[in-house]
Amino acid sequence: MFAYATLVTNADYALGATALARSLKRVSAACPLLVMAKPGTPGLDELEAEGCIVRETGKPAMSTAFQARHSRASQHARSPFTKGEKPAFHDPIDNFMKLELWRLTEYERIVFIDADAIAVRNIDKLFGYPEFSAAPNLYESLADMHRMNSGVFVAQPSENTYERMLERLDTPDVFWRRTDQTFLESYYPDWHGLPYTYNVLQYIFFNQPDLWHWPSVKVVHYQYEKPWQRDHPKRDLLAPLIDLWYRVLEGRPIPEDIRAPEQ
Ligand code: UDP
Ligand code: MN
0.85 exceeded by the pTM? Predict the structure, then answer.
């Protein structure tokens, strides 16, 4: 049995997951979207009505010291974000809940997708990829090809893996500067590379327009600022992608072509 999965810990990401669920339906995805959710999050009933499997999920065990080091204030002070802004509703501690995915052992394979991403073409093929497959963290320059982005990945749930991960996660003084992403990159140093088209980070649109080739784009990932934020500094640069996200959310037709601005 296969499933797509995402993570939702507050109302903002529940809205994101709604767009993701609708995007998967739009491209006739063969598997349902399982939503790992913090219990009591507003919007979960609506996600169920959307056809999602909502699974209430706890946090992996993390010591008080670990949580303090990875709190929003501490993470932003220790390793500031210089390329873009994280919305106020983003809590870095919640990112570690992605690891709970390895406990969903009734599934043979799971394709995880961040709640701030949408599929624009069918990606069922990803279920044929091995653990651990992910795309590069490409959004500024090709120098980042060797880094991994944890917004889309293929995993094989296993309690054994989960336990081994938890043994590594919280050791004295450890600081995972980009939370689950840095942890997974370190846990799977020889991760299999998916083509970047399976996780096209929105900044590619204005930073690397040569790599924006609409017919090849399979997943658009709105890293940093979210398309549903009322105001954000990159709104004008990203206008066509924000429009795309709303069209998917609202079930309106999407453009046949989306071109990056001439540089
Ligand atoms: N997430 C969440 N609540 C939070 C932070 C993160 O539900 O407070 C989930 C959500 O699925 C989100 C993912 O974890 O898409 C990773 O965070 P985000 O996408 O904001 O990080 P970015 O892609 O900007 O690095
Ligand atoms: Mn994301």
Answer: yes
